[in-house]
Design a protein that fits this description.
- By secondary structure, this protein is of the alpha/beta class.
- It has two domains: 175 residues, Rossmann fold, CATH 3.40.50; 117 residues, no CATH class.
- It has eleven helices and seven strands.
- A hairpin with a 2-residue loop joins β1 and β2.
- The longest helix has 25 residues.
- The relative contact order is 0.16.
């Protein structure tokens, strides 16, 4: 039995997705921001028998008087009673705001927690992930069909806005790619350190889910040893997190960007191929550490030559 800050967790021998006090799978999904996790969470909640909380400790979702109460909520949510549910769990971003609450330690509460299955949710195309991050920071909501006064915007204005905001800056793009690659590596490493040695994390990636959500969910349920019959009655999410449009069609300097990515690409870091992908190709097979280290080296070289 582990006690910390008036927090009590019962230790039980269990395999991934096996029962705690009653019959259901308990899951903790560790995810990165801007990776389509809202879509994934909404899809899970559309499955009968699933109780799933999105962004458990995110600012505005829960207020805690002390770090101890936040940690207690974290542990209690991971081991919540099943009731009539077949799957109970939550997602959280340990590298974002949720992972930087003063006094709160994901590792202290979750590491080796028996009976809890750990899942990672990431986006493997770090180039498109970088563009997504740049869009959000530079012009959030700036190119919607309606402006802030809810007045319809002319199509030409929308197109010009999109092209302007997508004139990629080399320094910002490379920094975004580095963050996407290295954050993914850090998250995967953190998940492996938290999960029991006999129950490694199950890796889910945005691209596989976007390409075939049914197959991705079936693989998850098999990992958790939950009957797949519940998937047949799931409700489709109304959240749209996919587009077949090539990012180059929204760039005013696409040819320049392609030259950058071609020069930066290696077998372990096919950045140009990522740039061209419209089929939701998964780059999960790439070594996340090698990719992170390569992009870091490229960034140092580019900065030295500026």
């Amino acid at each position: 039995m582990l006690s910390k800050n008036n927090l009590t967790i019962l230790s039980r021998e269990a395999s991934p997705g096996s029962n705690l006090a009653d019959s259901c799978a308990h899951v903790v999904v560790l995810k990165l921001g801007g990776s389509g996790s809202t879509w994934f969470a909404d899809t899970l909640r559309g499955i009968p028998g699933v109780l799933f909380e999105h962004q458990l400790l995110a600012p505005g979702t829960n207020k805690f008087a002390t770090a101890a109460s936040a940690e207690a909520h974290l542990a209690q949510s991971a081991t919540a009673p099943c009731g009539r549910h077949v799957l109970v769990g939550f997602d959280a971003n340990p590298l974002g705001d949720e992972g930087h609450i003063p006094g709160v330690s994901f590792a202290r509460v979750l590491r080796g927690l028996p009976g809890v299955a750990f899942i990672t949710w990431t986006r493997t195309n770090v180039v498109l992930k970088a563009f997504s991050g740049l869009n959000f920071k530079e012009a959030k909501g700036a190119c919607h069909v309606h402006n802030m006064n809810s007045k319809a915007m002319d199509a030409a204005v929308i197109e010009r806005c999109r092209r302007d905001r997508h004139e990629a800056n080399q320094t910002m793009l490379l920094d975004g790619i580095r963050k996407a690659a290295c954050n993914r590596h850090e998250l995967l490493s953190s998940a492996r350190s938290l999960a029991p040695h006999n129950a490694p994390p199950h890796e889910m990636v945005y691209e596989d889910f976007a390409r075939d959500p049914n197959a991705a969910l079936a693989a998850l349920f098999r990992f958790l040893r939950v009957t797949e019959k519940h998937l047949h009655a799931r409700k489709n999410s109304t959240i749209v997190k996919r587009s077949s449009e090539n990012i180059s069609t929204m760039l005013s300097n696409a040819a320049v960007v392609r030259r950058w990515l071609r020069a930066w690409s290696r077998a372990a870091a096919p950045l140009e191929a990522m740039f061209d992908d419209t089929e939701y190709t998964s780059f999960e097979q790439l070594d996340s550490q090698l990719l992170c280290e390569h992009v870091r080296r490229v960034q140092v070289e580019v900065e030295a030559n500026q």
